Amino acid sequence: MMETINSSKQAIELEEKYGAHNYHPLPVVLSKGEGVYLWDVEGKRYFDFLSAYSAVNQGHCHPRIKQALIDQASTLTLTSRAFYNDVLGPFEKYITEYFGFDMVLPMNTGAEGVETALKIARKWGYEKKGVRENEAVIIVAENNFHGRTTTVISFSNDENARKNFGPYTPGFEKIPYDDIPALQSALENKHVVAFLVEPIQGEAGVYTPDDDYIRKAAEVCKKENVLFIADEIQTGIARTGSLLAVCGHCSCEGHCEKQSSYTKPDMLILGKAISGGFYPVSAVLADKEVMGVIKPGQHGSTFGGNPLGVKVAMTALEVVRDEKLALNARKLGHIFRERMQKLVDEYSILKLVRGKGLLNAVVVNDTQESSTAWDMCVALKENGLLAKPTHGNIIRFAPPLVMTEDQLHECCDIIEKVVRSFSK
Ligand SMILES: *Cc1c(COP(=O)(O)O)cnc(C)c1O
């Protein structure tokens, strides 16, 4: 029998009893979303400051994406790639032009996108670069987050994500993040085929590297004939104030491929907001020399590239462009950090604020083990704003990019009130 939920308590009890305990959610049960707002089972309204880890940049239940989903769901949803379908081709043309690459390989979840990029990089290494088979090395950054598969957690250094999930996949080497000399010396190894990196480390606590880091890293890779792979699953799709975080500081309206400061990666991995929160879609973009190494039967996914998913993704990308979400994220990001900086200056409970666009974090001035950040998030929830701590005493603030300036100020007032209450 399907149970109807009448209270938050009831829903939490069901999850406790019947669900694997692989998450530790904030005690709020959501039942409705619209734009920047979420509502719980009791009807209380909240500002969403997580955006499903930046998967709903376009805002909850965006009407245009919803309509595309309904229309496509009423027509054709899944055929498998054993046959062609009439939505995949248009999607492939649309997304490659949108981001300025020759080709795309569609998958479903972000972790699958990462796995896909790793496989392509290894194959490219053997077939194009001439690395001896089974000896390819891929460089990654310390404190990375690229997903949860057995291979991806093999090169994590988060003990929680790794412990007792071994043996680990070999062929990965970690270097410090935001460290060009470390990258240079790692690339002295001629077996290196790729460097996989997040332009801003989101899960680790929104670590923003030096302004030149991405550009320099890409240059070093190019010089050594190593593929530069950008994981923009969280930072991409306008989140950081430009279409992609690798776009840097250009003043375009989200079409950074045309700008001189654009650092074009050899492979770009996208997920999350590529489908506006409606349906899992991920994608790897690359030019022909790289993507061409994949031949029929060598990689795939039953759901990857299905008409429903790619129709949703195309519409979600159109919304980002039409509503100028990159520009809004950039503008609101400045306001948010300015207001948070005032709190940091005034209240010793906060250590610092950092971030870019609307991907920001506030570091709480307490020990790694203390529950202060968690307690603050619970207090924020009581005051109508949902955020979640990430890695110890860091709170990530990442609202949907459709937020207005007035709404943002209202949210900053809520945060200010909670910070003040913790400072007594
Ligand atoms: C969320 C995320 C992933 C994994 O995506 P899933 O859809 O959860 O598999 C990979 N890389 C980064 C940077 C992410 O933020």
TrEMBL record:
GO molecular function, one term: ornithine aminotransferase activity
Origin superkingdom: Bacteria
The protein's Enzyme Commission number: 2.6.1.13
One Pfam family matching this protein: Aminotran_3
Keyword annotations of the record: Aminotransferase, Pyridoxal phosphate, Transferase
Coiled-coil spans in chain: none
Pathway: Amino-acid biosynthesis; L-proline biosynthesis; L-glutamate 5-semialdehyde from L-ornithine: step 1/1
Cofactor(s) listed in the protein's UniProt record: pyridoxal 5'-phosphate
Family: Belongs to the class-III pyridoxal-phosphate-dependent aminotransferase family.
Record's protein name: ornithine aminotransferase
Source organism of the structure: Belliella kenyensis
